[in-house]
Structures are given as structure tokens and as C-alpha cells.
């Protein structure tokens, strides 16, 4: 079935999906209860059977693409496989059926898990304390900026209003800093794709609150001057924030805390195999050095000398609450399970294999594509450029990505980082076998050949998907998500067409 | 139409400047619009705003990315091309004429000396884009 109608189009008047039991309490007049003004005369929901609903969503689910179906080399996103055991532990009734308001003495196991996860994350990144409360990486960034602001203010250092960010950063970095009221100073990258030390020196001063740095950076390269970078910022009186999106590259090998970073966020959905997105709960845990510990959001999970776990709300310097209750607890269960399943040596093996896989892809594709900032090795991801293909036949990164869909592979990240022309950012992750990588590489080589010999095939791709190439400009300029037919000609309609 | 007209000056952040008396008209270059792809959104400053050299004055959004616009010379904004806010494709189609963005009263003409001429800009843009 190629086209799946909307659920509204399947609607037939009078068809029902559920039978409600007979009302066993006296009926009340609803207008009297709520007032007529609060009632709508029409609620256009689809009238469908249970089977209609099941089939509709099953059909849609078959169109989904996920890591369970195939390679998902979306750079900067760490789309690794999420082991099934994570789901098993997260659905244990002792965890899944907890109520956030139940007394702490009845939730000691859950608090112990959070406490131990905080400790494991702190030890993995070389910091002193952790909170698992932020909902996502950008939320973690914002929290870090709030804590840095509070830190400087507490010291009476009120002139620190600027956050320095390299031009290769994720867009969330300047957004988080600006949201927190800081002025953002962008600095260029050097010829090697890393932080330009002179530009950094010029940008630092008595107004510097912090440097936000991603390491390895978004070009997939390790910031080899990191020790000097951190000490320059510290000498200027600022703190150094690590965007931990690329932590997979360093797991068990090196630690941001040892490099001089003062605070960082983890994306548990990237590095620690909790589910990605879909609007569900996430976790952008934040670890800090001692100097920022007093500012952690409340409540903080602590342990008494007697071994009882507590929710500490009495933290006068805390920046306050940033999440309802204690964060997304069941996500913490998954990350905890992942780390405990791997153990210390397994965690390091994740990092090593992530590096090996990316470098294998890089080595085999380096003749057919340009490599951005051609250093001897890359970290956990490799950034290719389609500059050569563009020059030869006008084939752009987007065309290559669309063609990949014809071969059943999810495209890599396109046009990021912004400093690489026609960027294709590939992050295979450690969970892919050599066979899967070879299949992907062979497809990429075939596409490079097609780009040279049959460029039209790429320009008009994808050809084998249910929906062909979309007009992205139209989609942005004339986005229309409203199903008009639903309201057309309805005599009961009280909904204005502009709503 | 030349893709880099000789009568304009250029910045390394890919803006062009057309100087007429005490005024300068500013837009983005052909190279910039080609790199961005179809432009879908434009944000312009209020008339009367005083801009410093290299200060951000707005942004353009394309299907690929959001880019900041930097003012190559300091001065007061005397006119903004608000007529194209709802037809941003004009920037792609005609970046040097109908697709102009702002007009400023130049505060310091000496700043113009730091800008590139057409030949140097072409060389610069060519290197940057490989």
C-alpha cells in the first residue's frame, strides 16, 4: 500500500472503537455544571474502529526508519544500538511503578541507583558531582550557563558578561548562552579545524564568563591544544564548559575533567544508549568540578553517613529547580544498566571501537571524497565534503544523501559543521560490525561513481522511496499542517479557518 | 549579470557594499546566496539603529542553515528592504539589485579601505569554497 490515508479520512459516521460501560451514577446537566460558554458544539475526532486504528498506525510504523532496522550514521548524534536489557530493567515494576511523591524511605533503591549513576558519570568525565535532572543536552547547557552566572555573581564578579564559542560549535551553544543573558563572542577555527589560540587570546578578557567548547570538536578532531586552551580561559578568570555531545570518542580513554574543563553535559541518549528523541523523555546529565557543586539544581540526591539516600533541598546557593521532581528517572535506569553491563573495560572498548569504526570508514572513503581538514586520524566521526562532486557535476551533499535513501541507508548529517562546504558528517558508532560498515562504504563508493557518470540519477533521487524529493523551500515557506477537508462544509463548524 | 560586479566592495563575511555619496547599500553576494541555497526567511534591523563595524544586523535562513548578517561599515540604518521579507527568493534571484538588504549613512569612510575589491573577493570566495 503506497499511500496511507489520514485517520480522519478513514472516519465513518457512527463507527466506534470502544464501548463505555453504562453510567452507574446519576447524570448531571453538563451546561449547568460547566456553563454553556465553555462547551464546544463540535469536536471533529475521527470515528473509527479499534482495527482501523491498529492498522493505520501499524502501516505508518512500517515507514519508520530506526537503528533496529539499519545503519544510522547521523553525525554528531551517536545513533548507537540501544541494548534490550536496558528496556528490561526500566520496566521492572519496582522502578516503573514508582510514584514521584512517595516517601523517600520507600524508594531507597531508586535513589541509590541515581546516586551511583551520578558517581559513575562523574568518574567517567573526571569531575566531582553530577545532576541527572536536565531533559536534554541543550537543557544541560542552559543549566551550566546558569551555574556559571551564579558562580561569578557570588564572587562579586559581575562584569563577566561574555561567553566565547568557536564557529564550529553546535548551534545550541550560542543559543544557551544567549538565553542565559550572556553576550556571545564567536571565534574562528584555524587551518587544522581546531580552536585558533590567537583568536581565543584576543577574545578573552575581564568580561569573559566562560568558553564553551566541544571536544572532540564537530569536525571530528581532538582539540590537541586543550590544556593550553583551558589554562588561557582560567587565567582570564573564566570557566570552561565542555559540550559532551562527542563523549563517545573519549569513553574510558581520557577525561574532560583532567583536561581542565570545569563543567560538562552528557547526552545519555547518545553516549549511554538510552532512546533518542521522539518527544519522549531524555537526559542531559551535567557534571561539575567542586567550585560549581553548590549551584547544582535541587533536589540533590545524597547519602547519609549511615547509608540512607536522601533528597537534599537545603542548598542555599542552588540555582533552583529545572525539572519537575527528579528528572527522567527511567532514562537514568537505562544508562545505569548500560554502564553496569559493560563495566569499566567495556566502557573503554566502546570508545576505542567508536574511533576504529570512524577511521575505517574514513580510510576507505578518502579517495572518493574530500576529507574536511585532512588530519592523520579522526575521532568518532568523519566529516566528508562533496566539494569535488559539486565542482565536477554540480552534485551537492544533499543529492548524495538522497541517493543513499535509494539504497536503504539513513543519510548522514548534512551541511554541518557550517565551516565545511557541502559537509557530510558520518558517525558509524561502535555498535556496527565490519560487514555493515563495508556495505555502507561500498554504497558510498558506488554513489561517488554515479555522481561522476550519471549525475542526473542523484539530482532526482530518491527514486525508490514512497515519497520522492520534497520541495524544501515550499515546505518552509508554505507549511500547512491543517486538514481542511475536516471542517469544510460542516454545518456545526465553529472553528474559524485561520485557527 | 556579473556574479561579482566591479563597482562594489566586498566583505569576508560575503556582504557587498555599494557606496553612493554618504550612503552605502548592503546586501549578500551571489556566492553567499549560492552557498546558502533557497532563502526562506530574512530578518532586518529597524531604521534608525546605529550599527558598529562588523556588528550583526540581521539574519538569513535557508533550507540549509541560518546565517548571521554583518554590517561591513558602521553607520545608521536609513532604509531596510522590508518589501522582500515575504519574497525572500528575490535575494537568490537578484542579490545585487532587488535583493539589497539595508542602506546606512556611513559614519567613517576610512573603514571602506578594509573591504575587498571584486577581484580579491572572487579569489577569497574561491579559496574558501575549495
Strand order of the largest sheet of chain B: 1-2-3-9-8-5
Which oligomeric form is depicted?
heterodimer
* Helical fraction of chain B: 10-25%
Regions with little confidence, pLDDT below 50 for 5+ residues of chain B: none
CATH class value of chain B: Mainly Beta
Count of helical regions of chain A: 17
The greatest interface here is: A-B, 15 and 13 residues
Output the helix-strand order of chain B.
EEEHEEEEEHEH
Average predicted confidence as pLDDT of chain B: 92
What is the CATH topology classification name of the largest domain in chain A? Answer: Aspartate Aminotransferase, domain 2
Radius of gyration of chain A: 26 Å
Q: Going across the major beta sheet of chain A, what is the strand order?
A: 1-7-6-5-4-2-3
Task: List its salient traits.
heterodimer; A: 499 residues; Aspartate Aminotransferase, domain 1; 2 domains; 17 helices; globular; disordered C terminus; B: 130 residues; alpha+beta; OB fold (Dihydrolipoamide Acetyltransferase, E2P); 6-stranded antiparallel beta sheet; 3-stranded antiparallel beta sheet; 3 helices; 18% helix
